[in-house]
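sanity check this record:

:::
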Amino acid sequence: MKIVFTGGGTAGHLYPILAIIRELRNVYPGENLKIFYAGPKNNHGQVLLKQERVKVKNIVCGKIRRYFDWKNIVDIFKIPLGFIQSIFWLFFLAPDVIFSKGGYGSFPVALGGGFLRIPLILQESDVAPGLVSKISSKWALEIFTSFPDTTYFPKDKTICLGNPVRTSLLNGSKQEAKEIFHLNNKPLLLVLGGSQGSRAINQIIIEVLNDLIDKFEIIHQTGIANQKQVQGEASVILNKAQSKFYHCLAFLNEEQLRHALAASDLVISRAGSGAIFEIASSKKPMLLIPLMGSAQDHQTKNAYKVSDFGAGEVIEEQNLKPHLFLQKIKNLFDSPQILQTMAENSAYFSKPKAATIIAEYLKEYLT
């Protein structure tokens, strides 16, 4: 039995796939199960996939941007090239099913599979489906969504299960976090800007760092490209006594993230579906800062669905001013009952068994 996973070129697509693969191996440990991943080259992703014994095929992928960029000219030619590459690879591999996470990186494989009449299963993370998911849904056998209000897809083949989450993130330890990050006894803010970091979030944290550090301890994931600059600016702002309360890291690996989530009192994050459901599954209140200009403005729509459910609050990027940001955090911690209610609503909002349910479905389909 062979299954091909495919998805766009970001961690937001990759981590749910990893979650499903792990659960699939649990529910079907048979040696005849062969798992492949096809998509754009991603060095970090390839390391993670190979650790899960997944064979990786790099596919040329073109991205359609809804704004002017010279890369659009080059990427126009990448799309048909990736389609042809996918058809030949899929023809000789002959998989039983393709599982697509959506995103531009999945399009050549999903389209090539459709051309070869290979069954396609689609998982859409966001409230507002992307263009690739909309197109792929036309021939998808089944569509799993993360949010109950996701529109566009045919109702007769759409099921809302939540976004698949790595179960390892659900059993973190506050004590382990204290030892890993050398934490003290202040309320802990966990700041996440996505796998690449967020300049807007990094900047606002630096602008208010001196005010925050008096009352809070901070674990701040900056993104690999931004860590040196952020750390340098923080070292100028903070004195030696204050610096022990600020932990600046380029990237939190899976072990660090699960313990940081367990220890956190509030998570400040972008509003990608992956981050939202990881935070919610950890039963934590969240303050979401959607990425401005994301495709279909999906992060803003995701964030307000969380807010409507009472699991978090939202500050849009154009309103991200130091005074408003500080006041929002202060108000939350001045009202512990609000934080507690948000944490409880996060637990209700989360669907931590999504990966297991999808894995069971794939097992039944393949067998």
Observations:
- The domain at 169-349 is CATH 3.40.50.2000 (Rossmann fold).
